[in-house]
């Protein structure tokens, strides 16, 4: 389902190709607070709500994210939040919501969630140093909250006279960029064991497979007013300029495309004239592990 826009295609893991969906874990909490490695033990979890798993007909909380994957490889600039077990950042590319996507933001579930590690799946933080840029968002109700692995320290001491923030691996070997103010990285930053909002990614992705199995048998394409109209550029158009135009009807829209069609076309998604509220699911066939989609996607002309 497409709700949050991407500037470009993303390379995600095999599980993550469903891209866009958790058990509310009441875990014994050890809150890691302070600037010098001191620990403060607290039994009270910060109430950020809970993650809702997908059903056959609803993506649940996964639909709140621009990218949802077990291992997320950020290979270009993006405008939106993501949730993943393992995050592979790119220092040259920013992340996080901006005013270009603010109409897609749910202030009650606006999180950037990293469950296990920055980089390697064994929990090492060798890629932590690549956390350098965020898009930023004016207005506290629109800026995201960041949830990070428990083995990454939140350090303020020595960063802009104590006003800044930096993420540091447990042994101090790896450090993110130093942000002069906390809000330059996130509105709030919590460890996973401090909050009520936790994601079991295996369960979440399994539930998304149930959702996928249901919707792959649905197709709303057609020429009637209440159907989804898909138009492709003629073969005479330069391959770099070809566009696949998807005009959506009121309510739910479902179309099926091959991976070749996605790779070979820019995508333009928009509402039909007079349509006020719509959603779109794109079923993709013939996918191979490691497929990359590097075309432009435009949603509602933005």
Cα-to-Cα separation, first versus last residue: 17 Å
Task: Give the oligomer, counting copies of the same chain as homo and different chains as hetero.
Answer: single chain
Major β-sheet strand ordering: 1-2-3-4-5-8
Main sheet overview: 6 strands, mixed
The 3D shape can be described as: elongated
Output the structural class: mainly beta
Radius of gyration: 20 Å
Averaged pLDDT: 81
Helix content: under 10%
Output the helix-strand order.
Answer: EEEEEEEEHEEEHEEE
Low-confidence stretches: 1-41
Q: Hey, roughly how much beta strand do the residues contain?
A: 15-25%
Annotation field: number of helices: 2
- What is the number of strand segments? 14
Overall description:
It is a single chain. This protein has 302 residues and is mostly beta strands. Helices cover 7% and strands 25% of the residues. The chain contains two helices and 14 strands, in the order ββββββββαβββαβββ. Strands 1-2-3-4-5-8 form a six-stranded mixed β-sheet. Strands 9-10-12-14 form a four-stranded mixed β-sheet. The relative contact order is 0.16.
Please write out the topology.
Layout: E1 11-12, E2 67-73, E3 82-88, E4 111-118, E5 145-148, E6 152-155, E7 166-169, E8 188-191, H1 201-215, E9 229-232, E10 243-248, E11 251-258, H2 259-263, E12 266-271, E13 278-285, E14 297-299
Parallel strand pairs: 2-3, 3-4, 4-5, 5-8, 10-12, 11-13, 12-14
Antiparallel strand pairs: 1-2, 6-7, 9-10
């Amino acid at each position: 389902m497409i709700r949050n826009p991407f500037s470009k295609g993303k390379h995600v893991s095999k599980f993550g190709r469903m891209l866009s969906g958790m058990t509310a874990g009441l875990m014994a909490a050890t809150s890691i607070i302070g600037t010098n490695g001191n620990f403060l033990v607290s039994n009270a979890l910060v109430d950020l709500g809970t993650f809702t798993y997908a059903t056959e007909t609803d993506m649940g909380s996964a639909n709140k994210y621009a990218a949802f994957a077990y291992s997320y490889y950020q290979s270009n600039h993006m405008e939106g939040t993501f949730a993943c077990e393992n995050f592979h950042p790119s220092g040259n590319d920013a992340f996080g919501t901006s005013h270009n996507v603010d109409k897609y933001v749910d202030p009650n579930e606006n999180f950037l969630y990293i469950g296990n590690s920055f980089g390697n799946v064994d929990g090492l933080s060798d890629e932590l140093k690549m956390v350098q840029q965020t898009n930023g968002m004016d207005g506290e109700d629109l800026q995201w909250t960041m949830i990070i692995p428990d083995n990454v320290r939140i350090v303020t001491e020595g960063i802009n006279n104590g006003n800044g923030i930096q993420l540091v691996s447990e042994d101090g070997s790896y450090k993110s960029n130093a942000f002069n103010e906390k809000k330059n990285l996130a509105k709030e930053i919590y460890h996973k064991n401090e909050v009520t909002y936790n994601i079991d990614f295996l369960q979440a992705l399994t539930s998304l497979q149930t959702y996928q199995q249901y919707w792959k048998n649905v197709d709303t394409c057609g020429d009637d007013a209440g159907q989804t109209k898909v138009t492709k550029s003629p073969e005479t158009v330069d391959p770099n300029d070809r566009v696949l135009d998807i005009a959506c009807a009121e309510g739910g829209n479902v179309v099926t495309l091959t991976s070749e069609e996605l790779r070979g076309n820019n995508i333009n998604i928009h509402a039909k004239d007079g349509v006020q509220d719509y959603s779109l699911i794109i079923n993709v066939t013939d996918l191979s592990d490691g497929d990359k989609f590097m075309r432009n996607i435009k949603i509602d002309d933005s």
